[in-house]
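Review the following:
>
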Amino acid sequence: MKKFTTLVSMFFLVGTFATAQTRAVAKEIASITAQKKTFQSYSLFTKSTSALKNVEVEKAEYFTLDIASLKGLVQKSPSNISISLPYDGKEITLELTKNTTLFDDSFYVTDEKNNLIKYNPGVYYRGIIKGDSNSLVAFSVFDEEVIAVISSDDYGNLNLGALNDDQGKMIKGNKNYVLYSDKYLKPEYDGSFCSADQIPHEGSKFDYQKFSGENQGKYATTKIPTIYYEVDYDIYVAKGRDTTSVMNWLTALVNNMHTIYNNDDIDLAMRSTMIWTVKDPYQGIGSTSVKYLEKFRKNRPTFDAHLAQLVGIDPGALGGVAYLNGLCSQANYSYCDMDNTPVVNFPSYSWNVMVMTHELGHNLGSQHTHACAWNGDNTAIDGCYTLEGSCANPGIPSSGGTIMSYCHLRSVGINFNNGFGPQPKQRIIDFINSRTCITESLDDVCITYHPEYQAVNVTPTSAQINVVLNNNEVTNWEYKLSKFSRAVPSTWSTNENNTFNFSGLEANTYYRLRIRKACDENNINGVDLVFATSAEDFCSGNEKFVDFGGVNTRYIPSENWTRTLMPSKEGAKIKVDFVAFNTEAKSDYLYVFDGVNEEAPSLTPNGLTGDLSNNLPNFEASNEAGALTFKFTSDGSIENAGWEANVSCAVLGTDDQNALVDYSYYPNPVTHEMNFVAKNPFQKIEIYSMDGRKVYSKNYKNVFATQVDMKSLAKGTYLVQVDFNGKTTTFKIVKK
């Protein structure tokens, strides 16, 4: 018989922290009792004698759900209820009151195509174990399902839910339930479950020590941040490809998280959710949570809430990651990997609630409790993990860890009922109350709006920048354009559509475009874009390729741009010889690709970084277009001198060119459809803007002719790449 026990309690919810004062949820239950209101009793379960074969989890209890009683509860949905459950030879009675603040007033659900999904939420309760004011309960009921987490000193963290199948997937309508404590069954994880300290600090700046004003030191939040959730395809599959089952699972977890926040006088609201019902773009993108966060941020530039959280099931125990102080900034994102227990038949709720609650805590202003950032003297609250910074180790808290700790790695465990602890709680409250992006209404789409920007028509003296939206909305913008060597203008200019046209520019020169929506006076979603004009003639031998700062100035923080160098002559290829290169080692990287975009073969898989003075590289294109593409990223601190390189052209040899010259395309310029005809079969056509961004892609099954619909593309010059059985040809086309 397989037996699972552990000496390390994952989330042992001892309540000694709360003995000094009654917490918010217990106060709510006490008030109901004092008013002599009735807790209507429901009997939802009968004890079952059938346990899982070959599996023994200490003190696990098995039940059969009474569907008729459950449906009666959902239908009547009384304000206050009591539920009794047997556990460890005792009877636990729960006193619960309805949670009516879980959703924003305009809550809705869509799929990946923005189609509305009809969802009838369940009934959500929170409360305590009767007679135990140090306990905490979140209890969610649906037409055919119950999901709950019960936390106390005596029992730890009890998970109540329906058993899964042998692959860890839900069994729709299953009446067989289990109640177990995660003291005796922990999820598989690899130690450090959060990577927030491993990514650049891109969130809002907030000096909590200098924060003052009428909102300082409030005991509760005066503003309500809203959250957009995105659910990956793997969760959709695990929940039987049923959107209602997905939403029941998600809203139950959010009810648990919401209860933890509310118990610390912090309010949040669920604004909207998107479910991937087809394969999502996050499949297999990496082995770290940071990769998923970065992809999420890039893939979801626009959403209608203050914060966005991606939840998924991904290979490996990735844990989660979030940007610190992400609220009211461009970094208002987090990611959570939803893990199963070692017994795949057992539902895992408390671990997933922990990760979701913890990562949002970073977005809302809290660092880890083992960071040297607390107590007014930059010391740590606990020593449950390697200290972040340089300070004395305060040791392990005997009463258990708090939400932002790593005390799940220690025998004391993480204590849900301790909540965030006094200092992280107050910092989150102060941070939320200090943010200006949170208003009384969510009608203002300035809340979160990070559209994509494309440079589609760049010449030596002009550039066209398009704002790419998820819909056809046309909005007003404010912007500041500055040359790399000039100061950013002090005043904003206006643009009343989604296309920016700039003329009178200098050739082969970097420009910085600072852009924000006209309604965005607080610069919540303002962004800096870097683009470069093309050279008059890269084949002249007189042109240079330099970093944004030029030959005599350093580059700037947080750059992220792509630039393609194209030969100005037919049958030529770009050649770049570096004469200087020095970036911040292992932080700022230049990548080189042999082609017209980032999807071309990489010439620098690990990137160029650090001081390369003693080993200066050179690159020469070998693709049919003769182009080289460069991508540069820099972190938020320490900028070195950058680089300088000479650009010239070489003859594109016959080995570099493919023989696929027998094709034609028309018209050029094109207004609506481009016709493409070839004498050899082709398999794919892709279109790229001049800054290397893919704007169109379609696969074919060995066809010889097609029409490409270009009506939706903005006016400008594009690169068209056609795949002939693994070989590509590239040509320019103008959309008018």
